[in-house]
Amino acid sequence: MTTSLVLTDREQSLKNVGHVSYALHTIVAVSAVIPGVQASILLLLVAFIIDLVKKGDAAGTWQESHFGWRIRSVVWAGVLYVLTLPLWLLFFVPGWIAWCVISLWFLYRVVKGWMCLNDNRAVD
């Protein structure tokens, strides 16, 4: 359900930043799930840095949760990828399965967050 409320210029600006960040996250997440397609990790780093820089601007607004959500998603996905890296080195199939599960989880978080942003509500 879309909440119809008028956003201030600050809130609209933060929402635009959120859309850009979620779009970059989506490109990386979808490419991680589709075999043979790999977007540059540079896109993810750009989105991550944007979120880190702009997070303070969102303090005290409903959008603050989105910045934390995206930052935590990237950090947790990174930690999980590193932890499961030995599976790739030792056994191909378990590594591939683990990374597919992580990528799907990451994509779920991106979609859920973007839907909440589009509805002008905090992500929970």
Describe the model.
The structure is a single chain. With 124 residues, the chain is mainly alpha-helical. It contains 4 helices and no strands. The protein has helices at 9-33, 41-54, 64-90, 92-118. The longest helix is centred in the middle third of the chain and has 27 residues, at 64-90. The protein is elongated, with a radius of gyration of 16 Å. The two termini are 15 Å apart.
Let me know the largest β-sheet. none
Detail the poorly predicted runs.
Answer: none
Mean pLDDT: 89
H-E string: HHHH
Radius of gyration: 16 Å
Q: In whole angstroms, how far apart are the ends?
A: 15 Å
- Fraction of residues in β-strands: under 5%
Estimate the global geometry from the Cα principal axes: elongated
